[in-house]
Amino acid sequence: MSDAPPKYEVGDHPDMPAPLTTTGIIGWLRANLFSSPVNSVFTLLFGALIIWLLPKLLNWAFFDAVWTGTGAKDCLTSPDAACWAFVSVRWDQFMYGLFPETERWRPDVVAALLVLALVPLMFERVQLARLLRGAAIILGPIFIALLYFAFSGEGVRAWPFNLIVLSLAVVALIAAQSVYPRLRRWLAGFLMFVFPILAFVMLLGLSKEAVQAWPYWLMGLSAVGLAIMALLPRHAKLTGRSLPISVALVVLFVIWGVALPSNWTVGLAYGVGSAQSQGATVTVIIAAVLTMLPIVLMVAMLLAPRTRSSVLDRFVLACIFVGVFAFLGNMLLIQAWDPVRGDSPPWVMAFAPAAFAVAALAPWGYGRNAGLPGKIALGLAPLYVLIAYWVLFAPPDFLNLGIFDWQTNTVPFFRGMQEVLPYVETPKWGGLMLTLVVALTGIVASLPLGIVLALGRRSNMPIIRSISIVFIEFWRGVPLITVLFMATVMFPLFLPEGVTFNQLLRALIGVALFSAAYMAEVVRGGLQAIPKGQYEAADALGLSYWKSMRLIILPQALKIVIPGIVNTFIGLFKDTTLVSIIGLFDLLGIVQAGLTDQKWLAPNVPYTGYVFAALVFWVFCYGMSRYSQFMERKLDTGHKR
Amino acid sequence: MATEQEKTDPPQRRDLKVSDEVAIQLIDMHKWYGEFHVLKDINLTVYRGERIVICGPSGSGKSTMIRCINRLEEHQQGQIIVDGIELTNDIKQIDQIRREVGMVFQHFNLFPHLTVLENLSLAPIWVRKTPKEEAERNAMKYLERVKIPEQADKYPGQLSGGQQQRVAIARSLCMNPKIMLFDEPTSALDPEMIKEVLDVMIELAEEGMTMLCVTHEMGFARTVANRVMFMDGGEIIEQNEPETFFNNPQSERTKLFLSQILH
Question: Which of A129, A268, A489, A515 is most buried, by the most CB atoms less than 10 A from its CB?
């Protein structure tokens, strides 16, 4: 009564502090743990449960656990606790499966490259100070732990230092990209176009056949590259606005021009030349298709109307133009000097220099309206291409630099590479490495495929809609185990005899298509949540279907369904364990295989193994879950409409 | 501003026929939604520079009619000729028309995941292939015209309804359209925000933009329109210059409608 609240004039009331019981620790406790009698009882019950359970858990996992040892007898010294010795002895196997010991640096390098490129991309626009503070808090203790591991055994171990260097490099890259934002583009480009090829070559290595067939690889790669270029939006295509694109184009055309003639000869030598070998015709057909594809694309590009042109632009175009003629000439040159087929008729010999001459002159006609710099660029381009051809591909008896070996139709450099990266067949892949390969391929393939299927299912075109529906409902209606079994048992029945198809590849395709169907429905949910007005606004502005999807609808739809997408990713990640039923040893499979070892027959070993596998899966899945929450917060522009 | 000019210079704005150049022509146009006959035998010629206000009870087909003009809705019979191009199923012609015809919606339909500036520069960059810097410079110019340049880096969700609608108008203008369609631009706004949007529209009208506007803002119709049109049951019942339309409506249905909305 004594301290009655003072009265204020209307409009003069100041902001008062909130009552103590609703803020601070007491406020939090009251609001969250003891808000009602029932809540209080539960708080006390769960508190008791934790107090009862936690020591047992800690004893099992840490205090009573066996940390070092070589077999079951060590584990039996403490049978009621974990036997981490089992995990530590078999660690390498759990990580790499049966990957040869001397080659295990390869998956390490691939993983390191992935982390280096992906992690900085995942954290955009982090403030530098905040980043360094976070790094110090999180990485500090980890570094100390790593240093302890480095010196704890006999001698010094290298891997903790590698991890330290890797994490510092990641932090440096994150910092660098906030200073230099274009770095992000390079990282993304590396991750999308370079990394998959690099990972493929690094992990699989080079077989003798792969080295023999190198022109096919180059052809295939350049064809894919050209297709990507052709699919780029028209204003970015060939306009010389983007240096990387122009450079890539020139490189691609040179590679293609080099690969094509040798491909031709290889095709002739191995295919038509020895027609009795089965599949030869197929090889020649594939070679022909790969040959035609870039030509068609190139013509399309040349004919595409262009509004702007720069010096660089003209240079690129000239290279392309020269490429067409130079490869014709080159092909004939090879025919002329081909040691397998002997000398060609004189008209072929005469045509080759003529083709080169046309190659050099043709761009001048094209560049009639170019200024002086343009003319210089045009003049340099044929020279550049010719030099590139000569260096790579000189005839055997004239100024040959030894880059191409005419006797064996191979490139000595690739044979050297084969010694550095010997072939490791996929049945030897295993452990966490295999799990990650299957999961990442599935994730990377299923999202774009799912988006296409979701759009297809909402298409106005009945045929596309029906195909999408049939695809989605088929794959969704079949258990993954069935898919994998079918891929193993049924699929070979449909293939011609003698043609085999890699077991891992079949599993990868199965998992990718399976999760694409799920992804499609998740994405469709997002598409349906976008108000009709957004489609109409995009239409009214004159955006084409694909542009309105890419710029307006999908960014919003995908943002809405991030939880669903990550849900599917996590499901996919855990479903990779099913590949063990078709004879591939993923992490869980290899742990289980380890349990049957006579040397480790102890009651606590299975628990330890399974807990370890579960822990590894949990770390990855929880990481994905946290990242999805981070993304949701980051992309939230704070409104609904 | 608008009102002053109206006093000094009304006849010019009130000219029934502003120019001889035809902007839009609807000839014997019909549209059905399934079995339902929404638009019946619509004949309409819009000359360049005309400001037409279309009113009528809800469900009368007025929105549907202007949505047919940029093919947000498909008509089934008759002809629609916009800027000399006939609307057919040809995607190229549809895209060509949509580039020339701007539209402002009742619910703004801004892109919530893009900033105001990105909303404005998106279509010029991707449809008109304008370089990014130029498109952004242009976008700022239009933002200044609708008097909210300071909101350029905000997201639409952070703006008030009136501001959002002004951004939507600026977004259409960025494409440099020859014709603007307004589909009830003020009916989703709080009363105190209607004026700021109408002011922008009045300014636009004074610059000679060809405008078709579905609205019930009769004050706007009186000030700006050179023709007011009344639709009911999918038909154009009556059209006239505003003075005559409001003071001396011809048909019974128009009289009833006007008595209901003017109280």
Answer: A515
